[in-house]
Predict the 3D structure of the following.
Amino acid sequence: MKFVSFCLFVSFVLTTVLQIGCLSVNVMDSAEKLVEVKDYRGAIEVYQNIVETKPGTSDARAAQLAIGEIYIKHIDQPEHGIQVYEAVITDAPTSDEAAVAHYRLGLQAYRQRDFDQAQTRFEIIVNQFLQLELAHNAQLLLAKSYENVEKYKQAVEVYNTFVQQNPQSKRTPQVLVNKARIQRQHLEDDEEAIRTLELLVRKYYNTESAESYIKEAKTVLTEFNLSPFGFGQYPNVPADFPFREQVLEWDEVTPEHELLARVRIKLWKQGTQTTGAMFDSNGLVYPTIHGVIYVTWTTVEDNDPEFAGRRYPSQIMGDPDTSKKWESLYLIDRMLERTDITPDEIDESGTKVYVYPNGTKVYEYPDGGIDPYEFLGLTK
């Protein structure tokens, strides 16, 4: 019987706890409905009843936060709202509700342009409640508070911390724009502003939500005649370079297109005229040059006895006209390599080039490609 009585007692306790939980939710709902119909005094009474019947609990603190919001937001008695928020912090200084109270007190101080008090509140959240989503908002408001009192270095430091801690946040591109603006306009440090904007473009170039910030960054960098992708000053484009006008529209290109253009411009200045170039998946640039092609050879397998051991080009890249002439002259049957002609092998700077009788230069892929960063002296 004792065992049965104990089970009944446990069942009663659990049922009571569940009922109290449901009752608390229902009471909170009723209070919210009173707020909706603007019966603010009635809502405060309901919330206060929760505070008195469930002291020291998260429900009580949530009710206090609701009371504080009513005083400040709805009945214009901020002094009472502030007292309620302070009480939450005093009763449970490490609770999530205390973080919310600090945040709302910070917002109230910010609206009143008491930026020193706002900074104090937001700093507490950033330092003690960083695990909460609320801390992200607090960081940004802390930075804005510093800006408002012309503490620009501190604002930049806060923005730096936000970027480091939240690289995937949708807000990060805007934060970088704000940081660069401070560096340029207030700290008069164009060099650091440029680095910030280049970082923005490199990391978030393909992020749709960052499109407007990328455009703003590219506009500023173009004023300095700088690549937004960190490639440095734009090169001078020779007057006889093909598609010169299009190339000069640097702000409309992707990183890959800019690298292609830079490689072609440097080759042109060195005396190598190109009609195009392609960026391969291996990260190398293959310029289109008359008389030059890049061939991937494949050997016929042994199970084909008629042609076993022979080679055929499974891929040909480069100048189309050169490719057609080479195929017609030096491939036979099933596009197999001719065995009666042996091209001259020339080693140019460590890269083998096969020169055929008609002067066509053939690189065995992936040979012949140019590492754009090494060729242009850029850092990846």
